[in-house]
Design goal:
There is one protein chain. The chain is mainly alpha-helical. The protein has 9 helices and no strands. Helix 3 runs parallel beside helix 6, helix 4 crosses helix 9 and helix 8 packs antiparallel against helix 9.
Amino acid sequence: MSARFDAARWRNSKGLIIVEFALVAALFVADVYHHIFFSKTPYLLLLGWLSLRLRGLGWKDVGFTRPRSWGTAVLWGATAGLAMEAIELFITQPLLVRWTGKMPDLSDVTVVEGNWKLLLIFLALTWTLAAFGEELVYRGYLMGRVAGLLGDKRTAWAVGLIVVSIVFGCGHIDQGGTGMIENIWNGMLLGALYLACGRNLTAAIIAHGVTDTVDVLLMYAGKYPGIH
């Protein structure tokens, strides 16, 4: 009986959160040293799923569920995604390039230019690995774990937003300093949208997918600013 009690207490303890953060850090370090095949997102998704299962929860408990209104969620998501893209292309990126002297390293994606087969693959990855996968991991899973560590109050969620946005930016280290800062900013916007929607992920997933889709389409057409 006491063993069961101790196990239940451990599943809901801050100690478990710290262990999870250590595993997340290990995945990031492994990725930096190129020990992660293709993408760390599937591994983070697995970790998030295991964490939720241990605590008797599911993805719906962190916001991956039907929104109150599909129309409102799609409208907010699409509008936010287009606004994020416009801010990035015409404000933040030019300022960062002027400051750092470097464009974000998008060489992994620019190979799509003029290649419709790669375009289809990249669009599929945009909506699965990036939009769904990264929003489930960073906004759905990690923000809640940071907030849980700090007491799950409003200020804890604000700290979670900042911390996880920085982690999200660092997750794009392959894009260089400019790309990392851009993604920290994007993470802040996506996290704020998640919170504004009552911690429902639908609008954030759509916004993420829309902004990345515009990027991929511009690169396919050879029209992404600063690339040529």
